[in-house]
């Protein structure tokens, strides 16, 4: 039986097409996206001898033939130009033990650039992208297409290699916090 007391506050906050959202719309959207659980990843790239990366949940499989995924990266983030310039990236899927790595790449420790790579073991993949040695999975990709989408670029990456690590509980982001699935 359906609960009759359910309210839909987002339905009342519909933003008319072609208008700029106000603060209430932005907060409602952030809240809605925060309630969509997602695997926590660190996306890395190496370009011109410099390693860059970011924490992201905006990762999605696109196709099996050929194996392709997409990532969404803020155009103003420091990793954006490394991904675009190198034409490669690595998606490192994190375990709950990798929470400090997620924090570091999310900027919570005030580190920038190559400093974010300290405190963890990294290997270099064939593409030149850094890969977290202890990640659940490393997915090495070649940029196949870039689509500009407002403040972000959607990078479509064809998979060059998949490196599977030890199976452990993954790190998940839900309701604006890291969670574990045990």
UniProtKB/TrEMBL annotation:
Residues 33-180 form the Flavin reductase like domain. InterPro entries: Flavin_Rdtase-like_dom (IPR002563), NADH-dep_flavin_reductase (IPR050268), Split_barrel_FMN-bd (IPR012349). It comes from the Bacteria. Its EC number is 1.5.1.42. Signal peptide: none annotated. It is an enzyme of class 1 (oxidoreductase). GO terms for biological process: pyrimidine nucleobase catabolic process. GO terms for molecular function: FMN binding; FMN reductase (NADH) activity; riboflavin reductase (NADPH) activity. Keywords: Oxidoreductase. This is FMN reductase (NADH) RutF. The gene is rutF_1.
């Amino acid at each position: 039986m359906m609960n009759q007391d359910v309210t839909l506050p987002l339905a009342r906050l519909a933003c008319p097409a072609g208008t700029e959202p106000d603060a209430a719309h932005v907060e409602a959207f952030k809240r809605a996206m925060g309630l969509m659980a997602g695997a926590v990843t660190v996306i890395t790239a190496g370009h011109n001898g410099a390693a860059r990366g970011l924490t992201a949940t905006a990762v999605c499989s696109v196709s099996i033939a050929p194996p392709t995924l997409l990532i969404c990266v803020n155009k103003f983030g420091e990793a954006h130009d490394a991904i675009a310039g190198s034409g490669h990236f690595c998606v490192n899927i994190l375990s709950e033990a990798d929470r400090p790595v997620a924090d570091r790449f999310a900027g919570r420790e005030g580190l920038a650039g190559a400093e974010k790579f300290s405190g963890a073991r990294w290997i270099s993949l064939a593409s030149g992208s850094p890969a977290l040695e202890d990640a659940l999975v490393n997915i090495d990709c070649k940029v196949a297409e870039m689509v500009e989408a407002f403040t972000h670029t959607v990078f479509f990456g064809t998979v060059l290699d998949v490196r599977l690590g030890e199976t452990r509980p993954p790190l998940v982001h839900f309701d604006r916090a890291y969670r574990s699935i045990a």
